[in-house]
Amino acid sequence: MDHQITTASDFRSTSIPNLYQLDTLLRCHICKDFLKIPVLTPCGHTFCSLCIREHLNNQPNCPLCLFEFRESLLRSEFLVNEVIQSYTSIRPTLIDALKIQKPIADEDKMPKPQDSSLIELISESENDDSNTADDDLQIVSTSERKPAKRSMTDILPLSSKPSKRTFTMFRSERIKKKPKSNEQMAQCPICQQFYPLKALEKTHLDECLTLQSLGKKSKPPKNFNADLKSQDKETSRPKSKTPETDENFRDEVSHVDKYLNSMAKSEYQRLPKINFTSMNLSQIKQKLMSLGLSTSGTRQNFIKRYNHYEMLWNSNFCDSLEPVDESELKRQLLSWDVSHNKPPQNTNNNGGISKLMMMKSSGKSSSYRKLLENFKNDKFNRKGWIVMFQKDFSRLIKEAKLKIKTSSPKTSDLTEQIHEEVHEGKMQGVQVTDEQQMEEGQEIILSEKQEVNEKTFQMKI
Amino acid sequence: MAGQEGACVTKRLQNELLQLLCSTTRSISAFPEDDNDLTYWTGYVTGPQGTPYSDLKFKISLNFPESYPFHPPKVKFVSPMWHPNVDMSGNICLDILKEKWSAVYNVETILLSLQSLLGEPNNRSPLNAVAAELWDRDMEEYKKKVLACYEEIEDC
Questions:
Q1: Boundary of a domain, candidates A261, A291, A313
Q2: Cβ of A7 and B8 within 8 Å?
Q3: Positions of E strands within A139-220
């Protein structure tokens, strides 16, 4: 849905910092993102379906209030789902529209403010010029950010003088449900016209945005097609119910319709929780096979795989309004499998060089790490190591030889350095005796190295 | 999008980071150690006023597992710490980091709990029995011990 990381604090720099709270409320407390397929717990809290199911796999209680309950008691919240979808779709434009920007002083277009709070502010700052009144307003509205930033719930400003004024401002904004004909004017970021702030937020922005998007391209809302499909299937409601003239509100209507048409799907049965302790391996295997799941790995892998699939399945078919089909679930399971159920590593011993060669071609760094894991114990795969770094070894030796040939008084240092390099290239400080144990194909390298050693030795003397 | 736990960890941690950066609580802070690895964080906690730890700043390491937030991060004091519920290598005995962990906790709540732990040690299950005993007996002496153990943080 939204791949960008957003936080509720995005609203702190807007003209309605209080939207911070709304934004926070629409987020899941587990993933801190907007609720995806929200479900209600018996204790009245709401989480993403997958988040809470995953949590319940670990401990059977509500993470907020620790109320104990079973996973089968989760109920999907269709309304919240649509609220969030509709909210997230307008959120970026909402933030843009509410960004505090210096109002362009254009007195002619601006009706004079007659209203209480603003006038108070202006008179306080003993200005008669309405141009500077604009500035004053600007100052107030920016300083409003600071107190709001102090903590999540506490938006009451400090008691210093300037913030007292802020407070008035704040209050006047908060109570602006009362019909007051004249108040702060703001410029619409889309059509550049000035409107009363209230009107701008409530209606004008939506209109302007839909108009604009229609002007460019009348893009159908994301879920519109699915919506139509479900309408066809489930209700006798004619499609033409949405008249052409309603196009401006198409997006809005789509979410409302989706909510009205939402109903729990019962084609698929929920997958039960299984107590694996009493089952033997082949029984578990059969269970997985009957669901068409992979049966690779260990018993532990099987159990984890089933549990994860059960979670995906139940979240998808019990909670989601728009369930994906089984194959998509299997794909999700597979990608989860890849990152979680790694096949047991047996890189050593019998695996031998051929395996290493394969690893080398696929990705040197990972196999390098695998080898390094056993570096200090006796399982260490010497041959593999030699093969892997053969190129580097021969290159280093070549370089060393070259440098020795063109030797100068500085050679001792150089060879020393090279010597170290060779060591490092091989295996961070392994002893020469160890190296000598390496047989086959390394003899040349070794002899050459000894040459280097001897030369270094001579130089030192 | 869903089901990718690894992605879920980093996404959530990014979100928390953003939130912490926006927060104005002065006495706590935290930041990932490395730009490429979001699972290791370093945090700083300032001791609460009116406690033997007031105005002292402590460094903390947080290591988030793959299964975060379903499992708690490993939290340790990096700075030397003389406290009933902290052992000599910095391990912390705090219920919310163990069995009382909940997926709704985050870095901020962890650091705040650590901060309050400084002022209100749980002396019933001490890791540092000497400190626990001294806390109940002689506050002056306790404070001296704390200060003797304390090391100023330079790099911050």
A1: A261
A2: no
A3: 185-187, 194-196
